[in-house]
Amino acid sequence: QEKPCRLSAALLGEGSEISQEQLYELLRYAALGKCHNAAQPSWCHIYHQSHLAGVVVVVLHEMSQLHFYRFYLQFKHLRKVFRHRFTLTPSANFPVSLYGEGTNLKPQNTPQGLASTSSECMSKSSDLQCDPIIQRYGEKKQGLTSYTLTLEEQKKNDYPIEGSPGCKGYISTECDQQRTDSSPLFGLDCEMCLTAKGNEVTRVSLVDAQGQCLLNELVKPESTVVNYRTRFSGITKKMLLPVKTRLSDIQTRLKEMLPHDAVLVGHSLNSDLQALEMIHPSVIDTSLLFARSEGRRFKLKFLAKAVLGKEIQCEQKLGHDPTEDARAALELAQFFIEQGPTKVAELNLEMLLTAEKLAEVSQNKAVLQPQGCGFQEQLNEPPPLSKPCFLDCLQVTGQKPLLLGRQGLDSSGLCQSNLSTSNKQILQRALEDVPLSKFSIIQFSLGPEYIASHLHAGLHEKVRSKLTDMLTIYAGPFEENFSLKSVKKEFGRCGPIQSLTVVTETFQPYVCIQYEVLEAAQLAVESLNGAEVAGSCIKVQRPVTAAMLDCNVLIKELELDVENEGVIYVAGLKKSLTETDLQEEFSQLKDLEALFLPKDLQSGKHRNCCFLKFQKSQSAVDALEAINGWTMKGSELRSRNALAPGHLWRWIWQMNHSNGKQGKHIFYEKMEQLSDSEQDLRKKVKKLDHHIKKLYRSLQNNTLCIVLFPGVNSTHGSQSGLGLMGIKDDEGRSAC
């Protein structure tokens, strides 16, 4: 009997941003499963993967998270069907990144006149000018200072920087930037586990320039561990039980051990420093040092074998050895500095990687291919360069992916590729071909006339302005000498306040309050309108603007959003309460599945509110009745249905703290008719939503469907993407 597939993604409730690698990790497991050595993704879980009927990825070309919330009401089908959503790291070349590291999507027969790719240049051994290493560093050997990351490079690659958002409370190593070519190198690597806080350090290793281990210490995380990631970290619950060392101890020891001109070396060292919550000015990142085209990176395991001839991260071992990894990264940097860019480029690493992957695929095919299938003839054919590893793996299983899109969508030649000129044609081909394919990528687009103009000419500001209005309420009138402290206290019980100002332009004073979460503003409107506050009977309302005329409709639709099903918002918590305290207090509530305690993304401090997710919708309704008026540690609680899922809450916070526009507000805006182009765009978005609805209804049950707004990462700016996913069930909705 066919088992219903199920998708669990509880960690998404915290609004974590999912990287392209993590998305690839999900797609690989969904398409291949355990029988082809694909691992469960680290951030979500697919139950009964072997019973999946297929995987369908819908890509909305050049669209971002902004588009989804700007046209939220038009995306009626998307918001009502998909239970799981996540913010997606934007990519400069999304079709390439979709297949994971090592992919180079391009037409197999490149027309004459088109620019050749870097891998084609590398095939000419006499000409290294096209090699990304030479393009970045030149041909001459240089000192180590030429290979340390500049401040701009550190910012671009998410290194913790003094004074930058998200780094409040981080500890500086107190090393200066007066490095020279004689400055000492130190290799650093950390292993992390996933906790309620995020990634936290569980092991730290530091080696000196001679490879001697100076530090190899287990660290006990501050928050509750959600996933030890033993397969990669080697850390188990048992190992950490007797550990007393905390992150602050490690920070102190590293500060004491590192000289003032120390240069830290690591592979994707930004992740280690972020987890250590430390800032260091002089770094060499080997994942960037050994440069590749299109922003891709070599894995440390591959570089160690190809450059140093060393085997690390062996499968026989349980997890990675951080000392081994730190030493490998250090030796790679030393090799690069001593040999120079030309010698490194001559290793032709791209070709070595391609050969290694093809050898792996050939080996797998030899094992899986039945005799007498003409496999030897296939091996004798010269393979194309940079053959995508993900497509290769699908080929091994006998699957040929389906790729449908408009002209200009590249294909590797390993897909059944069909180019169309309109979304309607794409949909028609999809309805015919998707049922015949186990893995399909369908790309829709609004058209070139809408992409740049609407994304870069005010879309961000329109969404930010609308969210600001929805987060803002006006309360009053008050008496001339009213107590502002009393007002702040009363309205603060509804949720965290971002700004509070007195409006004096009116005959009697009013107060303008901007909250940090939508639920708090709505709770204030619902519970305090007509109430007596600071000695006055007041009216509470949102600002009257053209953009806010459909606010009530939008609030209602957000409340009915499938992702908010069974989720309630609770305010009035004392900030001294920990997550453990809250779990104990709320443990008596029936069917409580998860608790999310938002925190300030700069200070890391908890807010005075939380979200509770219940397994059943009725249990959430019962909890609302029980919690309203409930007193916890002397504080009266208020609650309502959730409006904004975790990823949206995090995004709202980032928008309100960007561009220096925090706390600004427009009282009234001029009534303007929607331009013909925007009215047309809304119609196109509505039609696009209808196309996806029609495609989704045609899918078999137990089909994993992922809809991606890939985001934008270009010279004009960067906008985060958004992913919606679910497994179709018997009722045509996505199963949990």
From TrEMBL:
**GO cellular component terms given for this protein:** nucleus
Q: Name one Pfam family in it.
A: RNase_T
Q: Which UniProt keywords apply?
A: Exonuclease, Hydrolase, Nuclease, RNA-binding
- PROSITE patterns in UniProt: RRM (PS50102)
What domain of life?
Eukaryota
Its Gene Ontology molecular function terms? exonuclease activity; RNA binding
What residue stretches are annotated with the RRM domain? 471-545, 566-644
Any idea what this protein is called?
REXO5 exonuclease
Give the classification, highest ranks.
Eukaryota, Metazoa, Chordata, Craniata, Vertebrata
Q: Give the gene symbol.
A: Rexo5
